[in-house]
């Protein structure tokens, strides 16, 4: 009787549970038996995504499709694009990992990837993802998110707070333009004429040409438009950029230092640890500011501060070095689309953002905005206020690869002639434009012949 | 409804004394806690009567109505912050524990560098993992007392010392309770862990290290030489390698240098450099001389080879100089990390296999990451969960996927990615502890006390033999002298330290 009573009780209780709960069918995605994944490198895929995939689908067998050959840098862009297309069509991966923006655009424009916006809408994700990341995802013909970068990388302007205090100079702040940053840096140059006094701004392996191109990328400028076959250096905007870089080089605001490289048995130049350390003036306390990727300089011996890197003049909101390269996408037509989305959704969930905050990250920070609140690193929240400086997508098809090297060494030569007062900045820009155009025309002719 | 389920509920309900309005705060909180059905230990059945049961029915019904939102939300929604969280992660047994686990790491440890804690944290997000670094060369017993880690990651030697001193929690009961499938783990490793634990298991290892013979099948086929196989003696294996003489391909890549090869084979076939704790040097025995002769002949005749030499030898090179990877040697003896090397070299991926190393492999056997729970762990439950997880199949997938540097404890896990032929060699070695293993673990080996010196001092002598400047007998006589000197110096140093 007693047993019966209890059994009845249990029965009733469970009925109650059934009635109260189970009407709402829990929509958990069924674990797929096999998930086909295409990425460049298997080990790298597993170290970046494997833990999450195993956690979500513990019983799923991952079939890895290597896109190594399709991503071979020795092949032309055109050839890589062709190989990717062939790979996707023949191997039919469910999840595609792309690490190159142009390839992503090309595959999206070819209709090989699934538009994620309906999925994102149904899980109300758009508001939770870094708007800059979303913007980069929409860099394609249809302006639709055909992929999702679950992580992004961005830079910070790092400063040596001890040096700023010592010299009584105002600390840098978020939202400075390049001109403002370099003027702040100049105050260190002005404060002391001694050659071993600290300089205000320094960038390892960077000279006036690199600085100009850095500033240009913040402003969203391109030196050339390959698809139009035009070099675009003879503009007022570029003139301003080069003037900023060269005048601050002339007045000693920033200096350049190239350590001695070593030559390997194969004949390539490389910089060993010693050389890299010797070039790192910021860590050594010889420079007050530098730009580095988020998470750098964790072990310097001075009080380290950081703010967001310089912004563009026109909107005062966009910075360069903001990347969301590693994009996850669902192949258009994949029968496991829902399962792949389940994985992507998990990758950008608050749950993962929270767990990520506990761990040092070897690549990027979560695109999920809430990471900024979970992490103990205070400078992380600033990353979610940065917006990427975007140069419109270009098409490298049919350009001989030797163009780039020739172009940049030409720029260097012209800059050094200008710094040696052999020509004015105006003449320099004119010559750059003319020679650059010749180089581009030649590369195009050569590329088309092949 | 299963019988076990009923029983648990019975215990839960029978344990509730009734309070105001027949509604116990206990029940309420239990329901609010999303009804964790954990067993209670206090069994008090007898006071419970039918009347009480009937009252409870009303309570439960009433309670169910009162808490209908909680009950239904518990079933359809996950706790806050759990949106988009997959089913596989929703039964976190540590969800109610806000615990910090202190995990032992060494310098440059994969645990930190490779984010070993990440998958565990994905399953147990309320846990915080803090690493505590044991300085190189520090006495492990002292360090454990000072640093008070919860989860230990030990070498076999450290495991031996700590288990002996009662610093580790015995795991047999927990293993049985949670049905951890120890039988699926490579048996010799479990046996050794038990022996080093004095008959008890105090730790588990996700991977182990031994050598295997890697075989380039293509080169054997091309030259029409019969494939080597498990069960061969070292003599037979070397004879097989010697058949490559004159083919332009080496039969065996030494893996390093002649001294390393001789050391490997000598230990595998049970040769002793010395006995009586180093008092008697036996390096000039006929068996050693025979081995030296065979190996040095192999070098002279070209069927054994060291690294491919680069023309610019004093410059850093980014091309591999390993003749096996370059397809210039048919066999090499190496440990589990080498599989990754072959994969990265990317040549003939399917054309290689492994066979066990002839003789005994206990000398190449290492356990570098035995997970154990400290007997003073602040949260034993969480610590054990971590030990269990790190030895489970999910973590094995990550070890294999991210580049296997050691051999996974379960052959079946490894076979998810590699064929049986490719990894079988690692699971078929003879691994027998020597008779004096315990005295060796206590720091007083009976034999091979001078083996490190022998390895070191053999190098230059072997080179002279290969160059034809010394005979094997002359070289071994010189080596014997040298080792005797070393033993005397050590004895003197030990005496000084004592006085």
* Tally of DSSP β-strands of chain A: 17
Multimeric status of the protein? heterodimer
Structural class assignment of chain B: alpha/beta
Shape of chain A: globular
Radius of gyration of chain A from CA coordinates: 26 Å
Mean pLDDT of chain B: 83
Largest interface: A-B, 59 and 58 residues
Counted by DSSP, the helix tally of chain A is 17
- Mean model confidence by pLDDT of chain A: 89
**Protein structure class of chain A:** alpha/beta
- How many separate helices of chain B? 22
Strand content of chain A: 5-15%
**What is the percentage of strand-forming residues of chain B?**
5-15%
What gyration radius of chain B follows from the Cα positions, in whole Å?
30 Å
Q: List the strand order in the largest sheet of chain A.
A: 2-1-3-15-4
Question: Helix content range of the residues of chain B, please?
Answer: 40-55%
Describe this structure in words.
The complex is a heterodimer of chains A (450) and B (499). Chain A has 450 residues and is of the alpha/beta class. Chain A has helices at 2-21, 42-56, 77-91, 101-109, 117-122, 131-137, 161-167, 178-191, 208-218, 236-250, 273-279, 337-347, 350-356, 371-374, 380-383, 402-419, 425-449, and strands at residues 34-39, 61-66, 95-98, 148-149, 151-152, 155-160, 199-201, 224-225, 230-231, 262-263, 269-270, 287-293, 304-307, 318-319, 327-330, 365-366, 387-388. Chain A has 17 helices and 17 strands. In chain A, the strands form 6 sheets. In chain A, strands 2-1-3-15-4 form a 5-stranded mixed beta sheet. Chain A has a 4-stranded mixed beta sheet with strand order 7-12-6-13. In chain A, strands 5-16 form a two-stranded antiparallel sheet. The relative contact order of chain A is 0.15. Chain B has 499 residues and is an alpha/beta fold. Chain B has 22 helices and 13 strands. Chain B has helices at residues 3-14, 25-32, 50-66, 68-76, 110-113, 117-123, 140-147, 156-164, 172-177, 187-196, 217-223, 234-242, 258-268, 286-301, 337-345, 380-390, 393-401, 411-414, 420-423, 437-441, 451-466, 472-498, and strands at residues 100-105, 128-133, 151-154, 207-208, 211-216, 250-253, 274-275, 280-281, 304-305, 329-335, 352-355, 370-373, 407-408. In chain B, strands 9-6-10-5-11 form a 5-stranded mixed beta sheet, with helices on both faces. Chain B starts with a helix and ends with a helix. Residues 1-80 of chain B have low confidence and may be disordered. Chains A and B meet through helix 1, helix 2, strand 10, helix 12 and helix 13 of A and helix 1, helix 3, helix 4, helix 6 and helix 17 of B.
């Amino acid at each position: 009787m007693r047993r019966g009573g209890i059994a009845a009780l249990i029965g009733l209780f469970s009925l109650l549970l059934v009635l109260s709960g189970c009407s709402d069918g829990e929509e958990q995605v069924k674990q797929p038996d096999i998930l086909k994944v295409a990425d460049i490198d298997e080990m790298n895929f597993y170290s970046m995504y494997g833990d999450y995939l195993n956690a979500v689908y513990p019983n799923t067998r991952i079939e890895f499709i290597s896109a190594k050959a399709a991503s071979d840098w020795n092949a032309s862009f055109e050839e890589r694009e062709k190989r990717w297309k062939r790979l996707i069509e023949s191997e039919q991966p469910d999840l595609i990992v792309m690490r190159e923006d142009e390839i992503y655009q090309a595959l999206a424009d070819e209709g090989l990837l699934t538009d994620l916006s309906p999925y994102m809408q149904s899980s109300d994700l758009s508001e939770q993802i870094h708007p800059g990341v979303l913007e980069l995802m929409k860099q394609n013909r249809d302006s639709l998110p055909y992929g999702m970068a679950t992580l992004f990388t961005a830079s910070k302007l790092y400063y040596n707070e001890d040096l700023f205090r010592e010299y009584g100079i105002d600390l840098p702040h978020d939202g400075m333009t390049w001109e403002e940053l370099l003027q702040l840096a100049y105050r260190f140059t002005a404060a002391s004429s001694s050659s071993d006094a600290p300089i205000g701004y320094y960038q390892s392996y960077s000279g006036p040409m690199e600085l100009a191109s850095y500033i240009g990328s913040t402003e969203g400028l391109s030196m050339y438009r390959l698809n139009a076959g035009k070099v675009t250096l003879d503009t007022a905007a570029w003139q301003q950029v080069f003037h900023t870089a060269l005048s601050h080089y002339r007045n000693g605001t920033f200096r350049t230092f190239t350590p001695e490289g070593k030559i390997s048995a194969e004949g390539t130049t490389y910089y060993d640890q010693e050389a890299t350390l010797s070039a790192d003036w910021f860590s050594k306390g010889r420079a007050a500011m530098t730009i580095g990727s988020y998470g750098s300089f964790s072990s310097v011996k001075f009080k380290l501060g950081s703010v967001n890197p310089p912004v563009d003049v026109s909107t005062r909101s966009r910075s360069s070095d903001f990347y969301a390269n590693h994009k996850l996408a669902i192949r258009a037509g994949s029968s496991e689309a829902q399962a792949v989305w389940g994985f992507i959704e998990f990758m950008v969930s608050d749950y993962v953002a929270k767990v990520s905050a506990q761990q040092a990250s070897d690549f990027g920070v979560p695109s999920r905005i809430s990471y900024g609140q979970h992490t103990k690193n205070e400078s992380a929240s600033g990353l979610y206020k940065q917006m990427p400086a975007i140069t419109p997508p270009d098409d490298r098809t049919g350009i001989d690869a030797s163009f780039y090297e020739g172009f940049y060494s030409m720029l260097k030569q012209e800059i050094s002639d200008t710094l040696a007062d052999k020509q004015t900045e105006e003449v320099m820009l004119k010559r750059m434009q003319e020679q650059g155009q010749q180089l581009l025309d030649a590369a195009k002719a050569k590329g088309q012949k092949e | 409804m299963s019988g076990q389920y009923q029983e648990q509920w019975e215990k839960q309900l029978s344990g509730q004394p009734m309070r105001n309005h027949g509604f116990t705060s206990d029940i309420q909180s239990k329901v609010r806690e999303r009804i964790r059905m954990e067993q209670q230990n206090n069994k008090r059945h007898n006071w419970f009567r039918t009347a009480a049961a009937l009252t409870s029915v009303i309570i439960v019904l009433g309670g169910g109505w009162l808490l209908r939102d909680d009950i239904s939300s518990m079933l359809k929604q996950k706790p806050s912050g759990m949106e988009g969280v997959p089913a596989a992660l929703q039964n976190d047994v540590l969800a109610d524990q806000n615990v910090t686990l202190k995990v032992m790491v060494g310098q440059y440890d994969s645990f930190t560098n490779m984010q070993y804690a990440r998958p565990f944290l994905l399953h147990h997000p309320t846990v915080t993992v803090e690493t505590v670094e044991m300085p190189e060369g520090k006495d492990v017993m002292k360090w454990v007392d000072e640093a008070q880690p919860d989860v230990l990651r030990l070498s076999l030697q450290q495991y031996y010392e700590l288990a002996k001193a009662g610093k580790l929690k015995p795991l047999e009961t927990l293993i049985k309770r949670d049905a951890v499938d120890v039988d699926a783990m490579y048996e010799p490793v479990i046996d050794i862990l038990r022996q080093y634990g004095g008959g008890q298991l105090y730790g588990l290892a996700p991977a182990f290290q031994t050598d295997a013979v890697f075989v380039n099948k293509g080169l054997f086929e091309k030259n029409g030489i019969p494939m080597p196989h498990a069960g061969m003696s070292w003599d037979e294996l070397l004879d097989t390698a010697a058949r490559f003489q004159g083919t332009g391909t080496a039969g065996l890549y030494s893996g390093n240098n002649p001294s390393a090869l001789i050391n490997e084979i000598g230990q595998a076939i049970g040769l002793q450099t010395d006995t009586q704790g180093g008092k008697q040097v036996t390096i000039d025995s006929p068996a050693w001389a025979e081995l030296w002769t065979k190996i040095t002949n192999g070098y002279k005749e070209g069927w054994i080879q060291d690294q491919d030499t680069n023309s610019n030898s004093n410059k850093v090179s980014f091309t591999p100089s390993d003749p096996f990877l370059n397809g210039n040697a048919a066999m090499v003896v190496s440990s589990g990390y080498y599989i990754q090397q072959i994969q990265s070299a990317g040549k003939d991926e399917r054309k290689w296999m492994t066979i066990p190393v002839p003789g005994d492999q206990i000398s190449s056997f290492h356990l570098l990451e035995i997970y154990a729970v400290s007997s003073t762990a602040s949260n034993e439950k969480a610590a054990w969960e971590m030990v269990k997880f790190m030895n489970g199949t999910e973590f094995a997938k990550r070890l294999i996927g991210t580049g296997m540097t050691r051999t996974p404890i379960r052959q079946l896990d490894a076979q998810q990615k590699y064929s049986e032929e490719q990894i079988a060699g690692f699971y078929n070695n003879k691994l027998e502890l020597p008779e004096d293993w315990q005295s060796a673990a206590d720091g007083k080996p009976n034999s091979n006390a001078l083996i490190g010196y022998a390895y070191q001092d053999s190098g230059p002598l072997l080179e002279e033999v290969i160059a034809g400047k010394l005979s094997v007998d002359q070289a071994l006589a010189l080596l014997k002298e040298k080792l005797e000197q070393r033993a005397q110096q050590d004895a003197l140093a030990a005496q000084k330290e004592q006085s």
